[in-house]
Amino acid sequence: MVINRNKKGTRLELKTVDTDSDDKLDDSLAEKLIRRAESSLAVQTVIQHGIVFCHSLFAVMLKHIQWGASIVLAVDNSDIEAIVRLPEGVDPAVWQCEHLRQLCLQLNQLVALLIPECLPSNEDCREMKAGEWQYLCAAHVSPQPCSAIDYIIHTLDGATALLNSSKFFPSRATIPMASHKHFSSIARRLYRIFAHSWFHHREIFDDFENETCLYKRFLFLSTIEFQLIPEKLITIPQVFDMGV
Ligand SMILES: [Zn+2]
Ligand SMILES: [Zn+2]
Predict the structure, then answer these.
(1) CB neighbours of residue 82 within 10 Å
(2) 93: CA distance to ligand 2 center in Å?
(3) pLDDT for 54
(4) Which of 8-12, 86-90, 192-196 has the lowest mean pLDDT?
(5) Is residue 146's pLDDT more than 60?
(6) Concatenated DSSP letters for 37-95?
(7) 54 is in an annotated binding site
(8) Hey, what long-range contacts does 235-238 have (CB within 8 A, 24 or more apart)?
(9) Which ligand is nearest to the CA of 151?
(10) If you write DSSP's letter for every residue of 2-25 in order, what string do you get?
(11) Ligand approaching nearest to the C-alpha of 120
């Protein structure tokens, strides 16, 4: 199944077409969508459109594998870039905010996969660890040594609540300058969820990543397009060639 975009003048919605289509999400599409959409949800719509495109690539690749063809299971870097690169004319803060909101939504799917495996009775999951690093949970009045799965859930809930807070993010069209600082702290905490998964639940991480490209998108957003996370805090080995 490939997701195709609509013809000019039709409503903004997705439709399915045959697998031979060579449709691509390009920069100009993102710009056109933003110009065309009248609601303040335009940026979110563009991001989700790009992500659906990424999923459709995965579906096509699975079909090729079922046919016995030998292909590399990886989404091209240009596709990640097309989803995450800041389109011309879009407020960078709004773009970061919407991507982080979308990441939180999809991270919930990863958490659902981790819950049966990330048990406090496991040595590596008793506290929040990622390789050699150990973290205290900041979701409490004083930081607590929550188990890994509790840390992950508390962190994700806290990030989601903050991004949806009418106090700090009262509008989806503009972001108050004083709230920009939260992007970096949210990204640094969300990174630890990926890191715990990579170091201690590798199979779940790999399966999820192959299907969603979520870590690639997160890394591109947080270290290439915007400097939300310093390089020294990236503990997952550079397993992906980001190509830029
Ligand atoms: Zn765990
Ligand atoms: Zn906690």
Answers:
(1) 19
(2) 28
(3) 52
(4) 8-12
(5) yes
(6) --STTHHHHHHHHHHHHHHHHHHHHHHHHHTT--------HHHHHHHHSPPTTS-HHHH
(7) no
(8) 235/130, 235/131, 235/133, 235/195, 235/199, 236/194, 236/195, 236/198, 236/199
(9) 2
(10) EEEPPPTTS-S--EEE-TT-----
(11) 1
**Residue 163: phi, psi to the nearest 5?**
-65, -25
Q: What is the pTM of this model?
A: 0.73
Residue 58 confidence (pLDDT) above 80: no
97 has binding-site annotation:
no
**Any known ligand binding at 201?**
yes
Identity of the amino acid at 204: I
125 is in an annotated binding site: yes
Q: Look at 47-51, 64-68, 101-105, 158-162 and tell me which has the smallest mean pLDDT.
A: 64-68
Average pLDDT, the chain: 78
Give the class (CATH, top level) of 91-244.
mainly alpha
**AA identity, residue 205:** F
Distance 127 CA to ligand 1 centre (A): 8
Q: For the chain, which residues make up each domain, given as ranges?
A: 1-90, 91-244
